[in-house]
Every structure is written in C-alpha cells, then in structure tokens.
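Figure S4 source data
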Amino acid sequence: MIKSSFLPAIDRGLGLVRLLCMVVASAALAVLIVSFGWLVFGRYVLNVTPTWVEQLALLLICYIAFLGAAIGVRDDTHIGVTLFRDLLPVPARKVAIIIVDISLAVFGAVMVVAGITLMRFGWDTMLPMLDIPETFRTLAITSCGGLVMLFAGLRAASRCLSFKDWAPEIEFKDI
C-alpha cells in the first residue's frame, strides 16, 4: 500500500464499520432464533400462535442478508468469476480489479438512490403485525448500498493511489 498515514487510518475505520455490521447482523440472527423458538413454543405448547414472528423474521432477514453482503464486499469475498482476470498480466489484472471495485461502488450508489425512493414510498405503509413503517425494511437496502459504495469506492481509491506498490494475489494458485 501507499506509504501515507491516512490510508491505514481509513482502513482501521472501515474495519470498525465492518465490525459494527457484523455485530448488528449477529444480533438480528440471535433475535430471529429466539423469536422462532417462541413461535414453536406458542404454537405447540400454549396453542396460541404468535402472528408477529413471521413479519419480524422477514424484517430481520433483510438486515442479515444486506449487512452480510456489505461485509462480503469489505472482505473482498463477494461472488465473482476470476478465471479470466487471473490469466491477465499483472498490470492488466490490477486495472481489472480496480474496474470491479468501481463497478461495485456504482452499484452501491444505485442501491442508495433506489433505497431512498423505496423508503419515501413506504413511509405511510405499515408492516402488518409489527405496526412500524415499511421504511424500516427498505432501510436495509439503503444502508447496504451506502456501505458497498463506501467499502468498494475507498478500496478502488486506495488501489489507484498505491497502484505501483500492491500486487494482486491469484486465487486458487494450485489449480
């Protein structure tokens, strides 16, 4: 990486944001498990099915999935086909990796814009059984888009600034 002090500081800050995303997604998963335990207990022991669990599960799954996707972009483990990229010479491979990062950042920006539109549209619609605005569900899309834009955009900028110093790793070297 480039020998500047601000890039490691930015990387540490993004690592903290990633940790916060992981904590929120993990807490949502724990709440999901407990609520389904309550659903089973209510349905089969008390013979009274709690109807709000399904809607809460749908809401929590949105946050788990979208925050997990943002973490995957931060960790550079998002889905991708690297066969052709890895066959390129190193300078072209570097350019291809930066193009992918920029494309991810643009996709994140589109998610933010679309998510804000959905949030505005859903503010007056309430989620059944939970009595909260639909906006809370679409906030997951918007926040994921912002995080993807932040993670991929800053990684692309960092790679551009340190183009001569970093060497991309070839995945699956043994194949």
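Figure S5 source data
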Amino acid sequence: MTDSVPARRTVVQRGLFYEEFDLEVLYQHRPGRTVTEADNVLFTTLTMNTQGLHLDAAWSATQPFGQRLVNSMFTLSTLVGSSVAQLTQGTLVANLGFGSVGFPHPLFHGDTLYSETIVTGKRLSNSRPGQGIVDLTHTGRNQNGDVVATATRTALVWCRDSHDATSPTRGHPHEL
C-alpha cells in the first residue's frame, strides 16, 4: 500500500510588485546586522579606501570619536541590502539612483544596524509599460535607536501583470 502525497503549491520568496508598495506602511527589515571589525576592514580594503578612521586603531583613538568608524559606504550598502528580500527581490528592474544620503551618527564595530523603509511616492513609468517607479526612504538605526544612516532611492519595479511568472529569477508566489 502506497501513501498518496498531495501535490504542493510552490511559493518563491520575492519582493513587492509595484501595486503592493504601500505609502502607509513602515517596512522593518529583520534581522539586524551586527557589524564586526572584519566586515569593516574587508570592505574598506576591497574598495581601496585607505582612510585611517577605518583601518588605524591607534590613530583613530586620538580622533574625536576615540575609535575606528565603520566605513559609511558599508553602512549604506547594508542599509539598502537589508531591504532587498522584503521589497525588491526578483521584482526590481533597475535601481535608478540615490538622492540624499546622510550619516548623522557613527556606526562602530559591534553595533547592530536595524533598517526600515517607507515609500514616499510611486507612479507608473511613462516610457516602460508594465513597470513602475517607486521612491523609497531608508533609515538605519543602531541597537540604541540612534539614526546612523538615511538614504532616498528611486527604483524601477515590475507591475504584477507584466511580470514573467516562469522566470527562475523572478518567481511568482502563486501556484506555478
């Protein structure tokens, strides 16, 4: 006697389609990311940034913050990267650009970065049918709630009905 196993629906993790971005929602991206010394040194050296504030512990100790700072470009990359799974994984057509970027408080080794995003505007693309433009404001806070980074970003995303549900890189969450 053989047990019959019913067919399972397939659900692929993805970001939001244009229609799903909501101007009334605060999207909190979890888990947070605790930044290590190795993260900072690797990112800084990979990007050829020789700033002593990121690499030289003895010299940085004599500077206003008294210790090395996490590279702000690492902070920005992690801030935006942490939003991908929830907002744009497989639904992004292109990152169109950044507006204002700020770092109002330093991030240090051992701090945990928590990220959140609000949608500040959206419109259908005039030149690319089936796609929409979404304006996002990302905010990063450390474990104490201090804002360590902000960035505005404009992204081009797929509309639901124009999305290729059969693409392995842009899976659709419904039955395939």
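The domain at 18-161 is CATH 3.10.129.10 (Thiol Ester Dehydrase; Chain A). The beta strands are 26-34, 92-102, 112-124, 131-141, 147-158.
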